[in-house]
Amino acid sequence: MLPGAGKKVRLIAGRFGSPRTAWEASPEALQRVSGIAEDVVADLVRRRAEIDLDRELRKLDLMGVSFVCCGDPGYPENLRTIFDPPPALFVRGDLIAQDALAVAVVGTRRPSYYGQAVAERIGKDLAMAGVTVVSGMARGIDTAAHRGALKAGGRTVAVLGCGPDVVYPRENRKLMEQIMATGAVVSEFPPGTAPDAWHFPVRNRVISGLAKGVVVVEAAEKSGALITADFALEQGREVMAVPGNVTSPSSRGPHWLIKQGAALVESAEDVLDELGVEDLFPVKEAGVSSTVKLSNEEEVVYRMLSLEPVSMDFLIQQSGISPQEVAAALMFLEVKGMVKQLAGKFYVVAGL
Which of 67, 149, 302, 334 fits 156 for a cystine, CB–CB 3.0-4.6 Å? Predict the structure, then answer.
């Protein structure tokens, strides 16, 4: 897709009733479309002569890529209503009616453990509540949100800044396959398109456009996540942000949004409340499972942990328990899958 071409494509397709009818129109008929310059018509006619449309559609079919135009019934209704919807989407997987209730979760590519765990938990809990989780499949927060939704067995949609057959980043190949198996990977860029830098700000309007609201988890003051939030505001979507550590540069983006009026959210329940959604599956609260038996020492140590890393020395000082008992409690909590040890002997709750 060429930059700025969307408006012209929609104008021409609207004049003829459908993209296919416009594609088959004569040069004379195309020249009569108001607002389209002669050189644009000449370029379209030249490009059309070089392309065998049926052959290209067969290629897409062999690649497992479907093609849906803005006027087609299968085009996402949320996206259709934005100011500048893509004229068409290339899709791997399936877009379904349930995806109309979607929330985008976005943020930094270099999250803290806290940010990654929160994004994954929100993605998981939203998916458990029947909400489709939308993100950009980038490293960091995007990846965590997708994984959370997949862990819940829910739906998630990845919007790419490259062709739908291009894996970017490369380490997300398996994640991309999992998303396609139960949700969808979509792009307005045709197969084979490289992940050029200018594609990503463009694709961010699609991320927000597919969703009812956008949640920002850890982002710098100038970042792609805040670009997505800006698009969301322009599109009339809800903008939400997760607060973070005030000393962290990655908290500045969400905190700035909150100061500007974005809703402060700490959980999927907060997101659903902000959207005014009630009739969904209940989201389970995180906490100590009633089926897991803890000793008194394990209970004390676990209650002191959160998604913010703390040292063993801190736990010893604050708990009043001997170093040997704290070490044993942490070991057993790790075995039970309730605690995770980070580098430098720092500890956090397992998050999910």
Answer: 149
